[in-house]
Amino acid sequence: MNPQMVMYEEEFNQIQTVVERLVKEANSKVVFIVDKNGQLISAAGDTENLDTTSLASLTAGNIAATGGMARLLRENEFATQYHEGEKANIHIQLVGNRVILVVIFDSRSSLGLVRLRVRKAADELNGIFEALLNKVQSPERGDVLTEITDEDIDNLFND
Fold it and tell me: Closest Cα partner for 76 from 96, 103, 56, 100?
């Protein structure tokens, strides 16, 4: 079980930039990132008519199930999955064994293009998550709660 991921605004913005660029460069409909617990981290594209919460949870379950199959076959993990439908295709990529990158695309794109763009995005995301992990584990980070003053709390509750 993974501990709850800590996310800072700076890294979230970097992740969102990568996800939004991947939607355009892969000519996909939707791109999202999920942690292994099924929590949606970031999404871009045509998400209005999509239940991203359920899709995120099911994707994490899918990764867990295929991880079980991989162990039975004495594999570490199946890092990449592809599901082809009549109208929509899903490319799922495990990034740094930490998060799941999901690309939903249709006939306007191709698996080759998606795989090429995902490889580049996965490298970028891996760097961002590595830096985030180092930041969280850094001893000079300090306790976040020590940065909050009584005045900050008062301002939060006063309109």
Answer: 96
